[in-house]
From TrEMBL:
Gene3D superfamilies: Spore Coat Polysaccharide Biosynthesis Protein SpsA, Chain A (3.90.550.10). SUPFAM superfamilies: Nucleotide-diphospho-sugar transferases. GO terms for molecular function: molybdenum cofactor cytidylyltransferase activity. Keywords: Nucleotidyltransferase, Transferase. This is Molybdenum cofactor cytidylyltransferase. Its EC number is 2.7.7.76. CDD domains: GT_2_like_f (cd04182). The lineage of its organism: Bacteria, Pseudomonadati, Bacteroidota, Flavobacteriia, Flavobacteriales.
Length: 204
């Protein structure tokens, strides 16, 4: 492994992109939908790679061969979740485990999905900045009068993230520890791609 990559893993924040689902409502891998002369997934990855003092983990599952074939950046560490069908929790667990494997001293982790087309590096950076400024352990994106992804968790929550079951996701901890949450505005964060109709609206 190149020295600069080893150094990168020493950064205090990990960004974990959850891309293991089979896009059942869409009927084809949403990760590979064309967007901005790229794909939804590669757009998310390129924005994450712009974030300083962080390192990137991509969790794959369904269609992993197709998806990994699309990616050639040495800056991406892929974690394959063979248990992806059991629900979102398994991908979060796989991502956190990989983070700790690479850097057991990691201070925080941002969980992100790959189908929010308006996600930018500034969104990730704002989560990091607000968490640092407010000293809150959770910084969650705010849109449509709700809190969701991307969401940053301080390492004190890693153990509970590793205990998630089935379809449980980040929302469980956001709700449980509401007093330790800072809401960070994410304009158009409510737009994600679940159906062909969603995708047609995006590209029309």
């Amino acid at each position: 492994m190149k020295l600069n990559m080893v150094k990168k893993f020493q950064n205090k924040t990990a960004i974990v992109i959850l891309a293991a689902g089979n896009s059942s409502r869409l009927g084809r891998p949403k990760q590979l939908l064309e967007y901005k002369e790229s794909t939804l997934l590669r757009n998310t990855i390129s924005e994450a790679l712009k974030v300083e003092n962080s390192f990137l983990i991509l969790v794959t599952g369904s269609n992993n061969n197709l998806i990994e074939k699309e990616l050639n950046s040495v800056e991406i560490t892929v974690a394959f979740n063979s248990d992806w069908q059991s629900g979102m929790s398994s991908s979060i667990i796989k991502g956190i485990q990989k983070v700790l494997d690479l850097n057991s001293n990691c201070e925080s982790c941002i969980l992100s999905v790959c189908d929010q087309p308006f996600l930018t590096n500034a969104i990730f950076e704002n989560l990091m900045k607000e968490s640092e400024t407010t000293k809150k352990g959770i910084a969650a994106s705010a849109y449509s009068k709700a809190l969701g992804t991307p969401v940053l968790f301080h390492k004190k929550y890693f153990e509970e993230l590793l205990q998630l079951k089935g379809q449980e996701g980040a929302k469980k901890l956001i709700n449980k520890y509401a007093d330790d949450v800072v809401a960070v505005p994410f304009e158009k964060g409510n737009i994600d791609i679940d159906t062909e109709e969603d995708y047609e609206k995006l590209i029309s």
